[in-house]
Design a protein that fits this description.
elongated; TIM Barrel; single chain; Rossmann fold
Amino acid sequence: MPTLLVSLGTSPAIVPEAFLLPETCFASVHVLTTDSEEINTQFILDWFRDQAPKVTVTITRVAGFKDFKSETDHFRFEEILYRWMLGKAPAGNAHVCLSGGFKTMSAAVQKAAAVLGATEVFHVLADSIYQTADGKPRPAQTTAEIAESITGRNIHWIRLGPESGWPQFCNEAAANYPLETEREQGPVRWVTVPDQRFRERLHEVVERSHRIAGVWEHLDRLPFPTLATWSAADLAWLEQPVDPVADRSWIAALPKVELHCHLGGFATCGKTLHEVRKAADTPESLPALTEPDEPTRWPEPHAPIQLKEYMALGNANGSALLGDPGCLRRQCELLYRHMREQNIVYAEIRCSPANYGSATRSPWTVLNDIKTTFDRCMNEDSGCHVNLIIIATRKESGDYRATISRHLALAVSAAEHWNGDQECRVVGVDLAGYEDMSTRAHYFRDEFTAIHRCGLALTVHAGENDDAEGIWRAVFDLNARRLGHALHLIDSPELMRSVADRRVCVEMCPYANFQIKGFHPMKSDAAGTLRPQYPLKHYLDAGLRVTVNTDNIGISGASLTENFLFASRLCPELSRIDVLRLLSHAADASFLTPCKLLALRQQLAAWIPLPKIPPRP
């Protein structure tokens, strides 16, 4: 049965007149009014007792609130009005009459109906067919006069229609915004003026909505739709170039996604290496500790080093160390802790289980150890979800295809064995290792057919040490979803357009790329040849899905935060909103199921920190 809500001034007849709305039969009537002595609430109770005794009637009065004398008075009353409506008509299920009380009361009631919703909003007009004692015209005031006015059609109802209410308030509960009762007298209750929490919430929603409307035409350009709720000043700040010093804390606080990180390249030196070694199950079988000598001014050398030299910096770890189960588990634990410290919320970690196996320890056992360790870490601290990518490594010589085949078979078996979204699982394969004309992706088409047929994703190291043709082969012959580094993609504008059109992701690793290939501002080489510009920003502007990653955290000596900051130094025009685009690309290019991808995007959007813009002087 319908409910009627009425605000009341000094004319109590308005309540029964509203109750008599044609073609409507109300089961309950709720009145909100002030504490003024001029208000005759007894008339309302008497009328319903005599004319509609089965109808539930309540009257709520604001204790100590007698008149509207200021804007503050209005806002205090409005706060109670919102809370009262929430309590009497949840989900906007009520007819709302605008006629009673001051004009400001009527305005507040109409606004509240628009916000919270109403089955119908209407107004009542009563003709002044009666006279006061001094001869002035007046509307009906008594029960008999109300009946006579109804019969004579001197009362008019102006029906303004329903209000759908704001979606943001559809699920608001009255319990969240209680009204404190001061005293009760039968159906009449006096309530005190509460704090302004509902109005503050309303102001926040309205402000957010106005901001969204203000950038509506540019919404598709924002990496996350929630950025539309930011202020114009905050959005203008995002458009400015990254300041590698001033923005360090902001970038450190960003939620991040890591798509290109090698497990064996993590604890390669220093304290973490010692921690891994201390966890060995059989320490006597570990090779002697010989930490590599880093090049001068590492991690930002004056000249690039060869890939072989770069990989040699990780010789103290990798298969030499991770063949020990205790070391392997500890490496995973420390890597997980590092990712949590970096605010990484999702990571795809690359590993080579067959390289860590032995005659008594199968690749499956190794992979299971990696998976269960990450599962345990996630159960103890769920801030980061980790999935695995199995590496298939090309080599300069030897029968490396056998190892590739073992890793591909392992990946297919693991993907079918572990398929729960909440657990660590194998989601893809990486064709990595030695790049040249003889090891381009198309030579491995037959081996990788099973990967595609079983629904596993594929990323390929391409265009780092080979030219653009190597990238072409990875994209068109091996159907790679992502490309590792792809530094030479810039050499082929036509291929770059194809990569963008296919939405193939480019995984860039600023520190590793700088260390191996050398980019401006690294000084010219011995022949005086200028270093090229790092292509990350160029790729972004060309519409490519680009991500920033670490590659080998220990070898490169740089975290994901530091890689973002270094990218801004290599590309001084990189803006803060570009950084958010990189994050958005990383989420979209992850090898997650659609459901988990949606959750990841929502998580990233919700955790982006607002800038701390100093106030204007």
